[in-house]
Write a structure and sequence with these properties.
By secondary structure, the protein is of the alpha/beta class. The chain folds into two domains: 64-296 and 343-426, TIM Barrel (Alpha-Beta Barrel), CATH 3.20.20.140; 297-341, no CATH class. It has helices at residues 8-35, 50-62, 73-78, 95-100, 114-118, 122-139, 150-158, 178-187, 217-229, 240-249, 273-282, 292-295, 297-309, 311-320, 325-337, 346-359, 388-396, 401-426, and strands at 66-70, 105-111, 144-146, 162-169, 189-193, 232-234, 255-256, 285-288, 365-367. The strands form two sheets. Strands 1, 2, 3, 4, 5 and 6 form a six-stranded parallel β-sheet that branches. Strands 7-8-9 form a three-stranded parallel β-sheet. Helix 8 packs parallel to helix 9. The chain is globular and about 60 Å long.
Length: 443
């Protein structure tokens, strides 16, 4: 339609129509903003199917969404980071973005690094991290509910709160004592990753030279005691032989809290197809890790090349700050940031979910982000607010809504329920029926 600015009445009419249209657009935008997760990082490609995305959002909000592994507990402990403080661009996690991401339950990682093991402070480090989770839940009771069971997770969902759970990462935290293991269970630990990147005194890691040929005899006792307690066994980080030994012994299903498929990225942190099938036979669940170096072969190869190229600089940093592990990590992160790796699309992450669903079955795959434990993430999954993008991508690939709900959380709930049920059937006490065994190691 044509108009002339020389005619005042027509100009006035246009201005009025424009103002009304603008107000309407603002109103509609406000409603959409309340329905759609927001984040400062890019989300899905511009060509996404908006109808399907709205279906994905509805499904995501109705589902129990569980993240099996988040390391935000380390900055909460070491840097006094408060989860209520917006941290876009600094951390992957804060309360606002957990809600934007539709998160129902978070397993906070009680990660015990090797430096604490060497210092003899593994157990006290774990206690510090446990305390910071309780502090957050107590400080923000309208946002979090401390959870210790499947029933607690479902109760938190109904109350529109985030279930706060904990898993120890590195079995060295128990100080080779089954009594200490039980105390951790009392404090709320509901899974334990048997190793981290180094062997401990009773289990071999996937990133270290084998020492025990898998599990030692004491390691097998740890597995049995975890079964008796109802503490899920986490086989992320362990060697293939350790994983196989666990599957030979355990009665309830296991988890891999943050691991992916080795067939797609040949990294020792990933699980080969034969063991994926054994985990399925066991009834367990593999919760896919989001870290590009673990899931994207080209990034893994580039990372190895960068590590070799920067080896002298890494060595200089470790020597310069040998008495300050936090500073070492900070300086290495800076060096890595100055030498970036290739970008990874979200589709690569979805490939791992799809592969595990095909090899092990859709009942045996979940999500284990490794948020705030890794320096980079795939495009479209730059922080916890973007979790609905996974739901969208799974629907786009033809997964049914029922199967998507399994992947988002129901599979993990089933495994957790099986561990609870088998523990109740095998023992009525926490300590009364427990072994007093402690492994004495001469250092």
């Amino acid at each position: 339609m044509k108009f002339s600015f020389r005619r005042l009445t027509l100009a006035a009419s246009f201005a009025a129509v424009f103002a009304i249209a603008t107000l309407a657009l603002i109103a509609v935008s406000s409603v959409v903003a309340q329905q759609t997760p927001t984040t400062t990082t890019s989300s899905m490609p511009a060509a996404r199917d908006e109808k399907l995305y709205q279906q994905a959002l509805k499904l995501h909000r109705a589902s129990i969404v569980i993240d099996g592994h988040n390391d935000i507990t380390s900055p909460m402990t070491d840097k006094d980071y408060d989860l209520a403080t917006p941290s876009v661009g600094k951390y992957h996690t804060d309360i606002a973005r957990m809600k934007q991401g539709g998160l129902s339950a978070q397993f906070f990682s009680i990660y015990v690094g090797n430096e604490f093991v060497k210092q003899g402070h593994a157990t006290s480090r774990a206690m510090d991290l446990i305390d910071v989770v309780y502090r957050a839940a107590e400080k923000y009771p309208n946002d979090f509910l401390m959870a210790f069971s499947v029933a607690d997770i479902r109760r938190a969902k109904k109350a529109n709160k985030i279930a706060a759970l904990m898993g120890i990462e590195n079995g060295a935290a128990i100080d080779n004592s089954l009594k200490t293991l039980r105390e951790f269970y009392r404090l709320g630990i509901r899974y334990m990753t048997l190793t981290h990147n180094f062997n401990n005194d009773w289990a071999d890691s996937g990133r270290d030279t084998a020492k025990h040929n898998g599990l030692s005899d004491f390691g097998k006792e740890v597995v049995r005691e975890m079964n008796r307690l109802g503490m899920m066994i986490d086989v992320s980080h362990v060697s293939d032989k350790t994983m196989s030994d666990v599957l030979d012994i355990t009665k309830p299903p296991v988890i891999a809290s943050h691991s992916s498929a080795r067939a797609l990225a040949n990294h020792p942190r990933n699980i080969p197809d034969d063991l994926l099938k054994r985990i399925a036979q066991n009834g367990g669940v593999v919760m896919v890790n989001f870290y590009p170096t673990f899931i994207d072969q080209k990034v893994y190869d580039a990372d190895k090349a960068r590590t070799e190229r920067l080896k002298p600089q890494y060595a200089a940093i470790r020597e310069t700050y040998k008495d300050n592990p936090a500073r070492i990590e900070e300086e290495i992160d800076k060096l890595d940031a100055a030498n970036p790796l290739p970008e990874t699309p979200l589709s690569v992450l979805i490939d791992h979910i799809e592969h595990i669903a095909k090899v092990a079955g859709v009942d045996h795959v979940g999500l284990g982000s490794d948020f705030d434990g890794v320096p980079t993430l795939p495009n479209g999954m730059k922080d916890i607010a973007q979790l609905p993008n996974i739901t969208y991508e799974l629907l786009d690939r033809g997964f049914s809504e029922k199967d998507v709900k399994k992947i988002l959380g129901e599979n993990l709930l089933r495994v957790m329920a099986d561990n609870e049920r088998i523990a109740r059937a095998s023992s009525k006490t926490i300590s009364g029926d427990g072994s007093l065994r402690k492994l004495e190691v001469v250092k």
